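Lab notes, practical 5.
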Amino acid sequence: MAAISATMVKELRDRTGLGMLECKKALKETDGDIDLAIENMRKSGGMKAAKKASRVAAEGAVATKVAEDGSYGIVIEVNSETDFAARDDNFKGFVETVAAKVFETKETDIAALMAGDLEAAREALVQKIGENISVRRAAVVNADGGIVGEYVHGGRIGVLSVLTAGSSEVAKDVAMHTAAVNPRVARPEDMPAEELQKEKEIIMAQPDMASKPDEIKEKMSVGRVKKFLAENSLVEQAFVKDPSQTVGAYVKANGGEVVSFTRFEVGEGIEKVEEDFAEEVRKQLA
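Output from the prediction step:
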C-alpha cells in the first residue's frame, strides 16, 4: 500500500472541501489514487445528499437578476437548513450559479432546471456543507414594453416590480417599497373576491356593528372595505420614501403606472420543524 502523505491529503481536501480525516480515509481505500478517491466520494456523497433531502430546508437566500434594458428579470429562492449555511461563500456561489442559469434559459420548472450540471453542483454542495440544499422556486417576469425593477433586502426578500414606463431607479423604489411593506396585490381591483368577502364578514361581525340598522352597517362596511383595499394594494399605500404621496402617485409623477410585482421571501409557506436538541441527544445515546 502506498504511503499517504500530508501533501496528498491536503490536495484532496483542497479539491473536495472535506475534512482531513475523511480525505485520509478515502486515500487509504484507493491506495493513494486521488482521482479515484474523488470519484468514490462523489458516489458516497450522492447517498449522503439523499439522506439529507428529508430534512426541512427553510432558511437560505433569494436572488434577482434583471436585463440591462429592463425588459425582463428573474427571481429565485434557494434553501438551506440553517442561516449559518446560507452565509457560506460556497452556498452564495451556488445561488449565483442558479440565478445565472435561470436568467439565461428562462426555465422556471425546477426539475428541468436542475437536470445535469446544476444537480451535480447541488449534491457536491450538500456533501461539502453537510446540510440539505434545495432550489425551491424561480420566476421570470417580462416588462412587455415597460420596465422591470429589482430589489433584494438582506438576501432574504427579493422583489421584481413592473411599470408601464419610467426609469430603472423608480422601478427599484417600487420594488424596495414592496419588500418593506409586503402589499397583497398591486391594485385594488386585483384583490381576490373571496378575500374581499371574508374581510366583509369580519367587519360585519365586529362589536360596533351589532346595534346598527342594516343600511348603516352596509355603508360602514363599504368604507372599511375601501380602507382595507387601500392598506393592502401597492398603488394605494403611502410610499415609504415619501409618505405624503401614494406609490401610484409617485410612479405617475415619473411617467408610468404600476403593472405588477413578484415578491419572494425566504421560507414563506414552509412549515419549520421545531426540534428539542437535548431530546435529540438523548435519543441518539439511547
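Observations recorded by the TA: Residues 7 and 78 are 35 Å apart (CA to CA). The longest helix spans residues 34-52.
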